[in-house]
Predict the structure of Conjugative transposon protein TraN.
Amino acid sequence: MKNYTRKILQLLLVLAAGMLHAQNPQEQMYAGASYPLELTTAKTTHLVFPFDIISVDRGSENILAQKARGASNVLQVKAARSGFQQTSLTVITADKKLYGFTVDYVSSPLQTIIEFVAGPPAPAVHLQDPAYNQAELEEFSEKVLDQPKSVRGVRDKSIQSSFSLDGIFIHKDVIYYQLRVKNNSQLSYDIESVRFFVRDKKRVKRTAIQEHEISPLHTRSSSGLVLAESTQLFVYALPKFTTDKGQYLSIELREKNGGRHLNLDVSARKIVSAKAIAE
């Protein structure tokens, strides 16, 4: 009965899209509608929009959302935990349209690739302009990896594991973040993701989470696995940016198939105090 209801909802969505297309043949799905979205912890769902993604607003922290690396119009979404209560997701694209989703948890979603078509042909993935020299990013990431610790007091820990910011460096229009993961337990720490968000310091109770994700340009690490009783350094290269007085940079570290999730809050003062890298 549950699967039958889900199929009916999907059919209604398709019919609604068809009616809107009849009214406006240049746009097959009206961006102002609220669409049902099913997520699970075991699979990643890809939302492909006809224009670049400008903003993503999660109704709760039970949703993981990030832009696909190198693709500015593809959003990857996933459930952070199983069985969460219904919530929302809102996406704003470069054509100033708002896409609203009503999000539910299911163990096996009917669709994991959802495309929103603005007109024939179907939307292609928008590859970001390679404005940064990859060889240079690799070279300076390697240099930052060998730099001594220069930032103190930005650290988080959980269950015999810790996550710290050791340094912030800048070269041209790129900021390099030197991160350290220390595992004091007998269980290895398998990294699922490291993500960067600009967030507001204050949030009114019951309001949605306001955040802007920044995708790394380059990552330097020997492995995504921190073995038992070991330490590993990472360098993440991000495009140069600054935050407003009421904002901060949040760096989220998530453990794969585990609960030792760690988070760093980096103030604007520390970012603007980034050290230059000698060429």
Notes: The helical segments are 2-23, 134-145, 268-272. The chain has two domains: 2-115, 134-276. Residues 2-115 form a domain with the Immunoglobulin-like fold (CATH 2.60.40.1550). Residues 221 and 234 are 5 Å apart (CA to CA).
